[in-house]
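Pipeline run #58 for the internal structure catalog. This entry was flagged by the ingest filter as a single-chain record with no existing model, so it goes straight to prediction. Upstream metadata was stripped on purpose; only the residue string is passed forward. Reviewer on rotation: M.T. Logging verbosity set to normal.
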Amino acid sequence: MPRERGDNLPDKTSTRQSSNVGFTGAIVSDTGEDVEEGSARVPDDGTTRRGFLTAVSAVGLEVVADAARPARAASSPNDRPKEGDFLVAVDADQPVPLEAKDIPLNAKPTRAWPMDPDGPVVRSGSRLNRVVIVRLDPATLTGDTVQRAAEGVVAYSAICPHAGCEVSGWAEERALLECSCHYSHYDPSAGATVIDGPTQRPLAALPLKIVDGKLVVAKAFTGRVGIVPT
């Protein structure tokens, strides 16, 4: 019997070459069918093959780039306040970020810790991180305190540089911060400059800003915290 044209010709589907390519994720073949993950068929067509391999190479480069990026250091309770930190009250049951309205006007300072907003990690591992916050009439602020304040709220290190005692008192009639040990007085409206007492240095300021209604650290402490040798 004479052969019909096409007899014994190989089936194009059965002779299609396939290549196993290491690739994470589902691959769709040129026929529209899902291919088993990790084993993608690459068509023989040169243009399609080149496009496929280019895509795989691009994904591989992204993976390498991600692996090369340095990992973000874990936050520690001992870290000094950082830009972007919230402030939470020392005596609060839960670490809820403070807002300007939470700070009473011309009243005893609120004691607070900085808190990493991404943790959240309260930076209470070192007493040198403790701050005192007061709210004043913005019109009374002078010098650099104007830029460091947020809606009249100012923050300073709570540690007296004279002997390391905590500055937690408030001389109401004079609107001054007061050290509880040796009664040094600081003016919060003027960069916590020394008014009287044995201390020789002002308290380090912690500049603030308002973000979504919350008090947020704008910059690190403006100076050394703790006992400062004279």
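catalog note: The CA atoms of residues 20 and 41 lie 7 Å apart.
catalog note: The first strand starts at residue 27 and ends at 28.
status: ready for reviewer M.T.
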